[in-house]
């Protein structure tokens, strides 16, 4: 009886300490928005009374900042379909739950720039996109959340955010004009604060649907059947960096070990050599359409593009698969980008040559629920259409439009020859709508390796 009593009490204690996953007050739904740089966005509610902001979700940076008492920021924009959108601008003085963060706070990293311990803590976040930054002061306020379950209840989290008084670069001409929601590993990020305050477990997930609709859940630890690989943590500026060991293009596997950051704040994938040359040249050798060579496309960031005929409704391209450290496979569902040019449509391998850091961008995450488990320090992934949990969320912009289906084909498997492949769990072909990009698009290299810099 004593043993049974201990078990019952243990179960009660576990239930009492069990944390429920949470998400944003307006719902867990996210959208990839063409009009705003092809990043995933969500509505977040901050302050008292609550104001709603349309923020880009960025696993490549740490600070959550909003345009605030601006001297340089975007007040609103007109979309491609002539819809006028006005953005909320955060003002600490109008929120009854807001307070300035003093320089002697442990989260203030710019104390050397302070005139006194009690003065307002300054911040500046610099991004690798040319001339892109946010500058201001740190404040504390309430982030309005809700439990991510059938019986929802309101949750208020006291968080630290940036009052972004001056924005530059991409924030003024297309991407993330209404704020960036940093999801990184630093103590100042919202996932870190939610875990520290025991509001949610120290893990979160993002789902990236093929139709541009996604999900975000704080406290999601993933599932036992997901693929996993460990994070490679650095002492300074830790990121969601993992190791890859193989690249498979069209059924041909090559051993190549390199590190890459899983960054939702980068629209497409950036690779250094030798990984870039290996994946792009292997793709080019197996592509069936003619390679695009027009000088009019000099502004395209992609080097390997292929012409589509005027009446072409579908096309085939080689599959791209990755092997992560530990041996689990990561099958790339959406490696290509379809772009409309004046001369006609082309499709491109959605990989850009990098000269500094390897990044697995949002396009390679399409079709997966990605779990950023900061307790186990692993990255998890499992295929998902992102509709397993339905919620309501209204965003002022439309998600991505669709292009006629493309078919991903493994040429070796089609020919009945699987020699040398390592993708026995992959289907031989995949059919799905690809994103239809516009002729002119924004500088989308957002938030690659952000860091706090001296003001």
Automatic annotation (TrEMBL):
<dbReference type="InterPro" id="IPR032861">
    <property type="entry name" value="TAXi_N"/>
</dbReference>
<dbReference type="GO" id="GO:0005886">
    <property type="term" value="C:plasma membrane"/>
</dbReference>
<keyword id="KW-0472">Membrane</keyword>
<protein>
    <submittedName>
        <fullName>Pre-rRNA-processing protein ESF1</fullName>
    </submittedName>
</protein>
<dbReference type="Pfam" id="PF14541">
    <property type="entry name" value="TAXi_C"/>
</dbReference>
<keyword id="KW-0064">Aspartyl protease</keyword>
<dbReference type="InterPro" id="IPR033121">
    <property type="entry name" value="PEPTIDASE_A1"/>
</dbReference>
<dbReference type="InterPro" id="IPR034161">
    <property type="entry name" value="Pepsin-like_plant"/>
</dbReference>
<keyword id="KW-0378">Hydrolase</keyword>
<keyword id="KW-1003">Cell membrane</keyword>
<dbReference type="InterPro" id="IPR001461">
    <property type="entry name" value="Aspartic_peptidase_A1"/>
</dbReference>
<dbReference type="InterPro" id="IPR021109">
    <property type="entry name" value="Peptidase_aspartic_dom_sf"/>
</dbReference>
<dbReference type="GO" id="GO:0004190">
    <property type="term" value="F:aspartic-type endopeptidase activity"/>
</dbReference>
<keyword id="KW-0336">GPI-anchor</keyword>
<keyword id="KW-0449">Lipoprotein</keyword>
<keyword id="KW-0645">Protease</keyword>
<keyword id="KW-0732">Signal</keyword>
<dbReference type="InterPro" id="IPR001969">
    <property type="entry name" value="Aspartic_peptidase_AS"/>
</dbReference>
<dbReference type="GO" id="GO:0006508">
    <property type="term" value="P:proteolysis"/>
</dbReference>
<feature type="domain" description="Peptidase A1">
    <location>
        <begin position="40"/>
        <end position="382"/>
    </location>
</feature>
<dbReference type="InterPro" id="IPR032799">
    <property type="entry name" value="TAXi_C"/>
</dbReference>
<dbReference type="GO" id="GO:0098552">
    <property type="term" value="C:side of membrane"/>
</dbReference>
<comment type="similarity">
    <text>Belongs to the peptidase A1 family.</text>
</comment>
<keyword id="KW-0325">Glycoprotein</keyword>
<feature type="active site">
    <location>
        <position position="263"/>
    </location>
</feature>
<dbReference type="Pfam" id="PF14543">
    <property type="entry name" value="TAXi_N"/>
</dbReference>
<feature type="active site">
    <location>
        <position position="58"/>
    </location>
</feature>
